[in-house]
Amino acid sequence: MCADQSRSREITTDLYELAMAASYFEQGMFAPATFSLFVREYPPNRSYFVAAGLGDLLDYLESFHFQPDDLEYLERTSLFSSPFLAFLENLRFTGQVRAIHEGRIFFAAEPLVEISAPLIEAQLVETFVINAMNFPSLIASKAARCLYAAGDRRLIDFSLRRTQGTDAGLKVARASYIGGFIGTSNVLAGKLYGLPIYGTMAHSYVESFPHEIDAFRAFAKSFPKNTVLLIDTYDTVAGARKAVTVAHEMRAAGHALLAVRLDSGDLVHLSRQVGEIFDAAGLSEVRIFASGGLDEFSIQKLLAAGARIDAFGVGTKLGVSADAPYLDSAYKMVEYAGRPVLKLSSGKVSLAGIKQVFRLQDDRGLLRKDFIGLQDESVPEGEPLLQEVMKEGKRLLAPEPLDAIRQRFLDEFGRLPERYRKLRGAKKYPLETTARLQALQQEVTKEIQKKEFGGD
């Protein structure tokens, strides 16, 4: 994100947020409101999500402040009154945030974040809230699916060059690490987030040398502790044999060839051939790394066919979540001025009331069932997932180390039963609403029908 954009995050919003806020201001509507962020439906072949993006959201809320040049721009639009702009000049986020922590698994219809604040504050942050949580959670969920497909093989994010902008590339690197990847090719992400960075060479590097083996030797000389050779520029099998020669030369010099990379062709057949070549040369420890248009489906197919691959570089299809490029996220008001509210639009009904999500486990520690209930409820043996992370506009905890978030995901993903993790045909995880929450929905619905339509 460029500097000007990062300074203007408060107007990184949809116009109607400001229009509603201006009208609330004129009407004197400053009472507390609570909004709930959730995903309505699963994309195709999805049965769970991985929470990500909360850190950026809390940073935004804690520093929420309209800049002078933003207010000058809004004044030039001639859409807003001077008293409202003066109000915005001193506006800060003073509310409470309750959220499911990053790295945890959540399911459709469950509140991922609930924000309680004076109405104008809670309304103005809507666009950023959705944006901050939607894309990272989408990518972390895609990464988790790749992790499931790969089993014990390692995964590296190779997506930067084809993400929808460099800011998206940073988010992909961070979210995929949360979702189980071991690192990224994105050097800036490595600097900003402390991620392990990985890279090999391009075909252009090999092509720039008189002979393929010259390129291999030069690279091994420059990076004797981290040598990974791309062997498919001309002929993969011939390239593998040349890599064997360089590997023996490196061994004689006290170093070791870490891996070779395959980026094209029949990866099942070629990986087996390459593996046999290294086995015959007494170099079975050299790993085989594959890349090139991969995702969870192709990884699963390769391994099921017997591919001999130790690690995968996953790029474009991860970075844009190609098979499911969006989440149907919604940020809906659930209470205003102490009054529960809901939306009754066909196909988009929302749940009234400030809520909690409760997670139950079986006697083996596996995830068994979730309940959505009211905030002041308790469910026997149910773990409450929505935790207070911000109060009166201030973080309650220091930013979490990314490794801790990643480990939280790995621990919980390991407790999600196999039937919910499958890439296709996965079962829907059991999710129920409590009796009290159901009763509240019926009560609020009847009130709306009576008030708006004269119904009983």
How would you characterize the overall build of this protein?
By secondary structure, this protein is α/β, with parallel strands linked by helices. The protein has 2 domains: 3-139 and 327-453, nicotinate phosphoribosyltransferase (Alpha-Beta Barrel); 141-319, TIM Barrel, CATH 3.20.20. Helices cover 42% and strands 18% of the residues. The protein has helices at residues 3-7, 15-27, 54-62, 68-76, 82-89, 119-124, 126-150, 166-178, 187-193, 203-207, 212-222, 236-252, 267-280, 296-304, 316-319, 402-413, 418-421, 435-453; strands at residues 32-39, 49-50, 96-99, 105-106, 113-118, 154-157, 183-184, 228-230, 259-262, 287-290, 311-314, 329-336, 339-340, 355-361, 367-374, 383-384, 387-391, 394-395, 431-433. The strands form 4 sheets. It has a 7-stranded antiparallel beta sheet with strand order 13-12-1-5-3-17-18. Helix 4 runs antiparallel to helix 5 and helix 11 packs parallel to helix 12. Mean pLDDT is 95; it is low at 1-5.
C-alpha termini separation: 53 Å
The third-level CATH topology of the largest domain is nicotinate phosphoribosyltransferase
* Parts with pLDDT < 50 across at least 5 consecutive residues: 1-5
- Whole-angstrom Rg: 26 Å
Give me the secondary-structure category: alpha/beta
Biggest sheet: strand arrangement: 13-12-1-5-3-17-18
The average pLDDT value, as a whole number, equals 95
How many individual helices?
A: 18
CATH architecture identity of the largest domain:
Alpha-Beta Barrel
Q: Biggest β-sheet: count, sense, barrel?
A: 7 strands, antiparallel
Q: What helical percentage do the residues reach?
A: 40-55%
Shape: elongated
Taken together, the total number of domains comes to 2
What's the CATH H-level homologous superfamily of the largest domain?
Answer: nicotinate phosphoribosyltransferase
Number of strands: 19
* Percent of residues in beta strands: 15-25%
